[in-house]
Design a protein that fits this description.
Blueprint (H helix, E strand, L loop, with lengths): L1 H25 L1 H8 L9 H25 L3 H26 L5 H32 L1
Helix pairs in contact: 1-3, 1-5, 3-4, 3-5, 4-5
C-alpha cells in the first residue's frame, strides 16, 4: 500500500506542478489567444481538482504499476507518454470534431503536451517509488 501511495503522491505533485507552470505561464497567452471566447474568467476548480485526482490515479494504474512490475523506467515513460497522448487526443479531437473554429494547431500542441507531461509524471512516480522501496 505504501508503494501505491508514494507513486500516487509523487505523480500528482509532479503532474500538477508541471501543468500549472504550463497553463499559468509558458503557454497561457497562446491558449488565451486561441480560445479567448471559450475560457472562463476563473477555472472551475472543482472540475480541475477532480481531473487531477482521477488522472494521477490513471497514471499509477496504467503506467507506473506495470513499469514497477517489470522494473523499467523506460516502460513508465513510454506508457505515460502513450496514455497522455491518448487522453489529450480524446479531448482535443472530440473538440475538433464538434466545435466550430477549434484550432488544429492548439490540438496538436495540447496532445504533445499531454504526452510529455504524463510521461514525466509517470517517470517521476516510478523513480520515487523505486527510491522509497529501496530505502525500506
Amino acid at each position: 500500500m505504501t508503494r501505491v501511495l508514494v507513486a500516487y503522491a509523487t505523480t500528482l505533485i509532479v503532474f500538477c506542478c508541471c501543468d500549472f507552470v504550463w497553463l499559468g505561464w509558458v503557454a497561457k497567452d497562446y491558449y488565451q489567444s486561441q480560445l479567448a471566447g471559450l475560457l472562463l474568467a476563473q477555472p472551475n476548480w472543482a472540475a480541475a481538482v477532480t481531473f487531477y485526482v482521477l488522472y494521477a490515479a490513471g497514471i499509477v494504474i496504467f503506467c507506473i504499476s506495470p513499469a514497477l512490475d517489470s522494473a523499467s523506467l523506460a516502460k513508465a515513460a513510454l506508457l505515460g507518454a502513450l496514455l497522455g497522448a491518448l487522453a489529450y487526443a480524446t479531448y482535443d479531437l472530440s473538440n475538433l470534431a464538434t466545435l466550430k473554429s477549434w484550432p488544429i494547431a492548439l490540438s496538436l500542441l495540447d496532445i504533445a503536451w499531454g504526452a510529455f507531461v504524463t510521461g514525466v509524471a509517470a517517470s517521476a512516480g516510478y523513480q520515487m517509488t523505486r527510491l522509497v522501496g529501496a530505502a525500506t
